[in-house]
Amino acid sequence: MKKFLVPIYLGIDEQALRCIEDVLKRSGAIVVFISLTSDNEVRGMRGSWIKTDTKLMHVVNDQSFNGIVIVSGSGAPSNCCYEDIIKIIKRIANKHSDGVVAGIGEGQEVLYKAGVLVGNNVAQDDGQIVTSKNVITAQGNVTLDFALEVVSYSFGADLPTMAEFCQNAIQARKIEINDPQIACDYAYANEVQDTKLFENAIQTRNIEIKKAEIVCDCTFEGESFKAEILESQFQQLLAQKLLSVLNNAVLDADKVISVSKIMLLFRYLRKTLNITIEESLITYVLLQRFVSIQAERGIQYINKSNIGTMLVVLVIVTLKNFRDKVFSNSFFAQEFGIPPVVLNQSESAFLRIIGFQLWVEQSEFIKVFNEIVFDQDSEIILIV
């Protein structure tokens, strides 16, 4: 059985971490979190706490690990480049085909300082994954593909089947699934993720999924509920909520914006930027905050002429907050026909008005998600 070491440092990207952990465990690997701080729990870059399995001092001489993965995060270069970590990276790299060292985003800098990045074996472009001998690097919003590449290299011909992936997930999380061949647990760090993402990545590796409507197990603070999420239905529910907020904030807003127009926007973003359900929902939360501040101050920031720009700004600030790499404002300006200077000024004004409060607590996310999914006034029924 493969055994992977994952250093947990102050400022690590929790979402990337949970995605990588999930894929490794599905493959049947043992994943060990080691704390690089004096505590057993380490705070991530988005504010959540990660519980670790052991301390660095207890594994520095452990020869049983087959791989080490350095996850991206704002603190990777400064909080992860300890002498003992460098020692472990070099030792595993020297195992050649029996070991794998991997780093994504800022995690590549740690591999560089360990001296295992030679020549062109480093990902430099956004969305790029590079495998050179037993060193794997990645850059950009490709965490899932990166994790699958690590699994593919490590297991080779022994790569688990889809059924085995599901069975491993059951064992790791003790989740009862009636048919493990066609059902998967898609809960990453107790957060709702886009259920299509894992399916598409698996399909690229010729692993067959026999059920089109994926059954998800979404777990929030011990409360579990199963839902068959049809993305188009969720988009329509979300569009209705966004329009409702805009109608309450702007007189005659429905004369310039509609549910269908908002849905077209999110479908376009899904196609071009692979925006997730979670990210789409965050735009709604941020709009609520902005409108609430507008009402408190009695100042009409949003009007019929800038609703479109507001929606684009919501998308930009959400993606910048959740992703390592995003397109520049000039890309969005060109795509939506907004002068770059107007878009830049609008983004700056938005951030100042909400006081740069972009983080959404899990409890708030759950509340809003439930409001949308279980909306009694909606004409759309989301099957749950």
UniProtKB/TrEMBL annotation:
Residue span(s) of domain DJ-1/PfpI: 5-151
Record GO cellular component, one term: cytoplasm
Gene3D superfamilies, alphabetized: 3.40.50.880, Cyclin-like
Pfam families, per database record: Cyclin, DJ-1_PfpI
GO function terms (MF aspect): protein kinase binding
PANTHER family (alphabetical): PARKINSON DISEASE PROTEIN 7 HOMOLOG, PROTEIN/NUCLEIC ACID DEGLYCASE DJ-1-RELATED
Record protein name field: DJ-1/PfpI domain-containing protein
High-level lineage: Eukaryota, Metamonada, Preaxostyla, Oxymonadida, Streblomastigidae
